Amino acid sequence: xxxxxxxxxxxxxxxxxxxTTVETGPDGPVMKPSSGGLVTALKPVFKARKGYWIGxxxxxxxxxxDEMLAGSNADSAxxxxxxALTPGERKGFYTGFSNEIVWPLFHDLxxxxxxxxxYWKAYVSVNRKFAEVTARVAGNDSVVWVHDxxxxxxxxxxxxxxVRCRLGFFLHIPFPPVDxxxxxxxxxxxxxxxxxxxxxxxxxxxxxxxxxSCVRRFLPDVEMQRADExxxxxxxxxxxxxxxxxxxxxxxxxxxxxxxxxxxxxVAEIRGDMRGRQVILGVDRLDYTKGLPERLRAFQHLFAxxxxxxxxxxxxxxxxxxxxxxxxxxxxxxxxxTLISQINGQFGDPGWxxxxxxxxxxxxxxxxxxxxxxxxxxxxxxxxxxxxxxxEFCASQVDEHGVLILSEFAGSAEQLNNxxxxxxxxxxxxxxxxxxxxxxxxxxxxxxxxRKMRRRVRNANVFRWCDDFCSCLENSQGKAAKAA
Length: 484
Ligand code: GDG
What we know:
18 helices; Rossmann fold
């Protein structure tokens, strides 16, 4: 495979999806912004850095997609490059291997895995396809940054194709402990492939520790040296740097928007609609890792235990549809909606609805207004790489009145433990207690806690995350060269 010697010094992002997805509407294909944490995080970085973004463009035929992307590429210094996939490839690679094996396993939910061997074949061949497209635009001085669990083999194929430029990999989801990772039939191939990258980044030190334990167990030939928070691993004559880089958000964007008059007007409207009740907010993709049924049971427990809180609070729960073609996700929707209707039926009355359920994606201004209006954010994933919603809530709380109740199993808990009320999402009683505590928390304490968290979110923002990762990647190549 030939690399492109002309594209020097360009940043090349590679992820499963492009930031815009082509969908088939009633009047033909339309382009829509892609959803999810990875795209939210990478968009501002991409705008600031310029370069290429390689990924799956969504449904549609090759020519249609090229035409639509050409339109958006013409207006921008950043180029979107599609990797077209057939429905069969998409099914085996994305729905199958990525989301029925890696996603549940890496979130410690091994019983939900479907270890179908045909999924592995699709994963290998689609990773190869992503590598081929990437190799066409990568020059010797390019920086290729591959993202997330869908693309763990891309580094191996790129090296096999003769690509010599710097290659980094960042995992947005958790890395599981060795007792769980060992269930993966393709564990050794995946670990070995990751060592073709120059830098491997994780969300938290815990993920990094888990990864290192797996390497010790399954690749005993890899030598590792620790220097402060980073580990250098020697594998087949290369050095790979392994470190945690907790991802951030574009703080200023949320903070500035939240102060605009239109948003302030919408906040006042939301508060008026709630008639002085405290607003508890939940914002999640419809995913079993986000702990929705567990959260709803805790909410039920709250009203059963603290009768005085009835009519005093309402939960606004946004649930963004996700991975709807996977049976487990369809079952989760039914379970969630059944619980919501039970709780509303059990406790609600004509003047008060305990849960306001929104099953769609709301636009960014409405999301920021909800973050600003909320008195309590209830973010209780049973496991989460980071959870950007927690950080976006803090960045939008310009008057610092909101309380963050956060799962101790979210990566963001390591950074926001200076102000959040941390809970075990499986402990319904404890979550109900935390809600009761937050409801009664005095304004001065709310302010003090929120101010500390906002400072941390402002400092550890997404641009800093990108700079940290990229400077590590730049330094790493020297080390690799010396070792070679
Ligand atoms: C993965 C990891 C990690 C949500 N509802 C709406 C909406 N959103 C946006 C939020 C946020 C994003 O979606 C969700 O990000 P999360 O981080 O919470 O979760 P995942 O999608 O699972 O992301 C996660 C992340 O990657 C980044 O590394 O933190 O752990 O699982 O940005 O704002 N956006 C709009 N309307 C909605 O209704 N506009």
